[in-house]
Backbone:
């Protein structure tokens, strides 16, 4: 992330930092009063959400302590690497706790308003007070944008991790024998899911050194031209990895649909049921089949 970009976007200069430090000296002694007022606002404004984030006095006290330290750092206006890292951490914590950006930004806005009120109370004779407060707001808004940007990035990463976990769950590839893998596909196969299946399929083929891969589509809701083409691409990709692929679970209606649509399946090996696919797989893997032998 380019932090200089934030300075440009919010037109923050070194003079603004100096102004924050200048008024910060006057405001720092009022930090406890400020934190009490801020959290009183948050309790009233957030309502039930406040109770979720701060369910007991211990968690509330811990949050207030962290807030007190963060605002004292802000009043020092030292936008160095250590300070930026602390703001990144704030964004990460908000993402982990799933605190909504609108709640954070409303609290940030209230905080800047409270500091402005305190400034007029604590430094009423400061001749350049309006200019100092203007800098205070400019830097505060920039910090709010920085924290929300980090929040957005981390939330995106969390969603991506969850998506990958769901993909793994929806593509349960099982090693049914040494060198033989099977994946039962259930539901709808669209382009995105087909790509995820292919990626997982090739990764497992390489990792397990599979010589046969069974794709069972008996649970696929609809087999049309798109699905058939996805299956063909999967079998071709697996073949390039040195694995023989069998598509099992083709019902009579699915077979008829494929013929009516004029889909060319090429060299794709298909079977009507999983049992036949297993027989072929064991034969190619050189596994002696004794099931049902007399």
Residues:
């Amino acid at each position: 992330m380019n932090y200089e970009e934030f300075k440009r976007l919010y037109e923050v200069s070194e003079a603004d930092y100096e102004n924050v430090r200048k008024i910060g000296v006057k405001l720092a002694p009022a930090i406890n009063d400020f934190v009490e007022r801020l959290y009183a606002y948050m309790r009233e404004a957030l309502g039930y959400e406040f109770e979720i984030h701060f369910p007991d006095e211990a968690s509330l006290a811990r949050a207030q302590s962290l807030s007190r330290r963060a605002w004292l750092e802000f009043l020092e206006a030292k936008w160095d690497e250590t300070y930026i890292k602390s703001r990144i951490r704030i964004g990460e914590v908000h993402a982990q706790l799933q605190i909504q950006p609108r709640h954070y930004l409303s609290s940030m806005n209230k905080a800047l308003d409270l500091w402005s009120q305190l400034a007029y109370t604590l430094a009423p004779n400061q001749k350049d007070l309006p200019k100092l407060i203007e800098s205070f707001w400019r830097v505060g808004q920039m910090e709010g944008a920085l924290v929300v940007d980090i929040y957005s990035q981390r939330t995106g990463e969390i969603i991506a991790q969850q998506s990958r976990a769901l993909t793994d769950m929806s593509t349960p590839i099982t090693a049914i024998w040494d060198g033989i893998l099977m994946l039962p596909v259930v539901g709808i196969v669209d382009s995105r899911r087909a790509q995820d299946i292919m990626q997982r399929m090739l990764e497992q083929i390489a990792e397990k050194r599979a010589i046969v891969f069974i794709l069972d589509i008996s649970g696929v809701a609809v087999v049309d031209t798109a699905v058939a083409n996805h299956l063909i691409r999967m079998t071709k990709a697996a073949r390039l990895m040195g694995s023989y692929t069998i598509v099992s679970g083709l019902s009579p209606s699915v077979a008829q649909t494929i013929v009516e649509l004029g889909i060319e399946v090429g060299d794709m090996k298909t079977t009507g049921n999983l049992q036949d696919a297993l027989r072929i797989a064991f034969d190619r893997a050189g596994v002696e089949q004794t099931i049902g032998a007399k």
About this structure: Residues 92 and 151 are 6 Å apart (CA to CA). The chain has two domains: 3-168, 174-285.
